[in-house]
Every structure is written in structure tokens, then in C-alpha cells.
Amino acid sequence: MQYPQPQNLPQLPLFQEALWASGTAPLLPELMEEEPIAEESAFSEIALRGLPGQCLMLLAPMLRELSEESDSRWLTLIAPPSSLTPDWLRKAGLNRQGILLLPARDQAAAQALACEALRLGNSHTVVSWLNLSAKARAQLSRAAVAGQAQSLNIRLG
């Protein structure tokens, strides 16, 4: 059996009318959010737990995609784990021509280096491996906005 469909009404208004008729407030305004502010969209963080080799296997496709970005700026890796070597980058299929690999002596130096790399704008994405406080996240976000770049922090468990 085929049910008749109204020709003029799109599905969403029909759904909203049914909710209003039942006395329930419409869901659409609650689900719709404003555009995220620039600082919020400039910083992302991923937490990975497991064996180092497994974590690198999960990161490989993401880093490969970032390394093939059409943006002519660098993909900068700040203070990566020791297992992330130039040889691993090659084996994972990353475009090493556009990758800048920067070690750091400690967490504070790595955070300062990440902020500076973001602020300068020579990198489209700066990937860091840091344990960050809320204040440090905000600093990276502001630096990313200033340099029109993206900050990605990876926390390994």
C-alpha cells in the first residue's frame, strides 16, 4: 500500500508540525549550534591508548592525509615519540618533502616551539605530543589563529 505524500511540504516542516501539535517544543533550534569561534576550530586533540606500534598505526592515515595537503606550508611535527622516525614516515607513505620534524628537550620547550611554529604561519598544521593544561590549550589555539594554521595535539596513554 502506498501512502499519499503532500506535494508542497518538505519533510522537516511536517516533522515540526507534528511536534508542535503534540505540545512538544521543536528539536531543531536546540540541535542547531552557532558557528564555532575561530579559536575553538583551530585546536584539536586526540587521546590514544595502547601499544606504541598500535598508536602509530592509527596515526599513519591521518598524518599521511595531512602530509598530502594542497597547502604549500609545512606539516610540522613537534616532539614526536621516539618511534616516529624518518624511516617510519617513509614506510607509512607520508610525503616527507613537506614535513618538518622538530624534537624538543622537554615539555615546556615543546609547547613554546609549537606556539611559535603556529604563530609564524609557516605550517598548515602543527602536530604536538604534549600533556596540556587548559591554559596551554588556549595558548595553542590563539597561536593557531594568529598564524592561520591548525593545531593538533596527540596524547598517548
From TrEMBL:
GO terms for biological process: negative regulation of cell division; SOS response. InterPro entries: Cell_div_suppressor_SulA, P-loop_NTPase. Gene3D superfamilies: P-loop containing nucleotide triphosphate hydrolases. This is CDP-glycerol--UDP-pyrophosphoryl-N-acetylglucosaminyl-N-acetylmannosamine glycerophosphotransferase. The keyword Zinc does not apply. It comes from the Bacteria. Keywords: Transferase. The keyword Lipoprotein does not apply. SUPFAM superfamilies: P-loop containing nucleoside triphosphate hydrolases (SSF52540). GO terms for molecular function: transferase activity.
